[in-house]
Amino acid sequence: xxxxxxxxxxxxxxxxxxxxxxxxxxxxxxxxxxxxxxxxxxxxxxxxxxxxxxxxxxxxxxxxxxxxxxxxxxxxxxxxxxxxxxxxxxxxxxxxxxxxxxxxxxxxxxxxxxxxxxxxxxxxxxxxxxxxxxxxxxxxxxxxxxxxxxxxxxxxxxxxxxxxxxxxxxxxxxxxxxxxxxxxxxxxxxxxxxxxxxxxxxxxxxxxxxxxxxxxxxxxxxxxxxxxxxxxxxxxxxxxxxxxxxxxxxxxxxxxxxxxxxxxxxxxxxxxxxxxxxxxxxxxxxxxxxxxxxxxxxxxxxxxxxxxxxxxxxxxxxxxxxxxxxxxxxxxxxxxxxxxxxxxxxxxxxxxxxxxxxxxxxxxxxxxxxxxxxxxxxxxxxxxxxxxxxxxxx
Length: 394
Prior knowledge:
Helix 5 (about 195-205) runs antiparallel to helix 6 and helix 6 (about 225-250) packs across helix 10. The termini are far apart. This protein folds into three domains: about 35-225, 4-Layer Sandwich (Metallo-beta-lactamase, Chain A); about 240-290, no CATH class; about 300-390, Lipocalin, CATH 2.40.128.50. Helices cover about 30% and strands about 30% of the residues. An eight-stranded antiparallel beta barrel has the order 13-14-15-16-17-18-19-20. The chain has a seven-stranded mixed beta sheet with strand order 1-2-3-4-5-6-7. Strands 8-9-10-11-12 form a five-stranded mixed beta sheet, covered by helices on one side. By secondary structure, the protein is α+β, with helices and mostly antiparallel strands.
C-alpha cells in the first residue's frame, strides 16, 4: 500500500471524525444562563419583576396577566429573556403575547426579537423606530389599551431619552418610569435638558396620586416610591443644575466642582454621593455639555429650512427634522441624535464630548443642498453614520 494512499485514508478518517464532532456539538443544546428574578404581586393581574444582573444591579419589569396571555412591560436584555419567560410561566401559566417598550434604553428592547419569535406583539413610542429595536405597533404622544382587566395608559415625555414614556396601570395604581427616575442618584436628563426632565416629573406627578406605587427602571434603594419623591427629585435636580451653572460661569473647573462641598450637599438625598463623591463628576459633565455649551442662535422658523431627506450616492438616507425646538438627524433602525448649532453650517451632536458633528452645505443662493457627517476616526459613531456627503432630495 503506497504512502500516498495511507495519507489519503488518514485524511478521510480525520474528516469523518471532524464531521461527527461538529454534529455532536450542533446537537448539544446551547447553555442558557440563569438569572434570579423576584416577583412582587400587586393584584391578581399585575406583578413587578426584578432581575438580578449582579449582586448590586436589579432591573425592573412588570407584567399584566390577561385571559389568554401576558403583557410584558420592558423586555430586558436577550440573555435574560429565557429566565424571564420561565418566571412568567411559573407565575401565570401563560406565555408573553405582548411586549411594551417604554424607552429607547437598550435594556428595554434588547429581547424584543426573542419574544417576537415566540408570537408576541411589540408596542412602543414611534421614536423607537430610530433604534435597532424590532418594532410593530407605534404610537405618538399618548396611548391607552385594556388588557386582562387592567388599563395601561402611556404618555410620551421629554425626560431622559427619545422614546421615554410614563406607563400608568390605572386599576392597580402602579406607575413605571424607567430610567427617567432612580431612587439612589440623578439620571441623565436627555436632549431636552433639565427643563425637559422636570416637565417629565411634573407629568408623572399629575398622573399619580398619594397611593400610587412608583417603580423606577432599577431597584436601587427600594422597589416602590411615592408621589412626593418625584417632587423632591425634581427640586434636587433643579437646584444642583443651578449651582453647576453658576460655578461654571464663574470659571470653576470640572475637577474643582467635583470636590465642591456645596454641590455634594445639594445631592444630600442620595447616599451614593456620600459614599462615592467622585461620581458627582459624571453629573457635572453631562450638565455642562447639555446646558452650558456655547451655541449659535438659530430661530426655530429658520431651523425648518434644514428639515428634509438627504441621500448618499449609494442610496443611504438620512432624515433631518425639528422637534420641540431641537434639530435632529436620524436613520430608521439605527440612530436619532439631537444637534447643537455652532454656526449655520456646523452642528455638533448634542451631549457629546468629542468632535462629532454634522456639516451642512449651502448653494450660492443660500439654500441647503447637503449634509456630511463628521465623526472621529475609529469612534463608535464612525461605524454607524456614513461619512459621505448626502444630497438633499426632499
